TrEMBL record:
Binds 4 FAD per tetramer. Each FAD binding site is formed by three monomers. Its cofactor is FAD. One of its GO terms (molecular function) is thymidylate synthase activity. Catalyzes the reductive methylation of 2'-deoxyuridine-5'-monophosphate (dUMP) to 2'-deoxythymidine-5'-monophosphate (dTMP) while utilizing 5,10-methylenetetrahydrofolate (mTHF) as the methyl donor, and NADPH and FADH(2) as the reductant. Homotetramer. FAD binds at residues 69, 92-94, 101, 189-191, 195. Signal peptide: none annotated. GO terms for biological process: dTMP biosynthetic process; dTTP biosynthetic process; methylation. This is Flavin-dependent thymidylate synthase. PROSITE patterns: THYX (PS51331). It comes from Streptomyces fumanus. NCBIfam families: thyX (TIGR02170). Coiled coil: none annotated.
Amino acid sequence: MSDTPEADFKIELRSDVTVELVKHTASDADVLFAARVSTVGEQSLDELKKDPERSKGLINYLMRDRHGSPFEHNSMTFLISAPIFVFREFMRHRVGWSYNEESGRYRELQPVFYVPDASRKLVQEGRPGKYRFVEGTEAQRELTARAMADSYEQAYGTYREMLAAGVAREVARAVLPVGLYSSMYATCNARSLMHFIGLRTQHELAKVPSFPQREIEMVGEKMEAAWAGLMPLTHAAFNANGRVAP
Ligand SMILES: Cc1cc2nc3c(=O)[nH]c(=O)nc-3n(C[C@H](O)[C@H](O)[C@H](O)COP(=O)(O)OP(=O)(O)OC[C@H]3O[C@@H](n4cnc5c(N)ncnc54)[C@H](O)[C@@H]3O)c2cc1C
């Protein structure tokens, strides 16, 4: 019989990220409305919808010539659940973003951790700045899954032990790894989102290629899909002009 007490927690392993558009005021008409004030003054939203071809042309012109400010008069709030290492990269995006993240000081962090699934390439080949990722062997995949699960189990057990001994949550959390899931609200506008997507996704239409970490790219892809549904003309113009934020 083992002397080790049964763990009073169960580790949950996830490989996904979730992105929910929780609120928005964002449409292509918001871009037109802002842009046309400079030439025709105030216009109603109904009037803006009268000539769709002209609207498409104007949005494309603004994107092509990098007149960025008309793309700022809109707002999207996303609820994102992803590992802490993704948020660490995400929060480098300072301009046109507001963040609120769950607290490790005010609540006990839950044992939900990241493991790569079979689609995640594990091995980097080549030198910095000129590299590619390849699948990796079965042994590397097995080691990664086992090492992560063991390490998460041990770290979370230590966290719980410290809490049970009366150590404050804000101190005990230091033992938890960056594979722990967190959640945050992130609010942005189309211009700041385009800048984020341009850097954090890889796309054949990008005229300036970027090489983001796959896990933040998964978040970027879901945000882009939600945004494309709200602002289809702006999204099409972004793609047509090389996916560079105006
Ligand atoms: C593939 C990739 C690899 C990366 N690797 C690393 C890394 O190894 N180490 C690391 O530290 N970071 C790394 N980063 C983060 C990167 O350096 C940027 O911090 C991040 O992409 C945010 O970009 P940004 O500053 O343009 O965005 P934002 O902060 O949102 O800024 C938007 C724009 O506003 C302007 N701006 C904002 N702040 C200033 C300022 N203070 N002065 C002047 N202009 C400003 C710039 O035009 C900027 O592009 C990496 C990013 C990517 C995409």
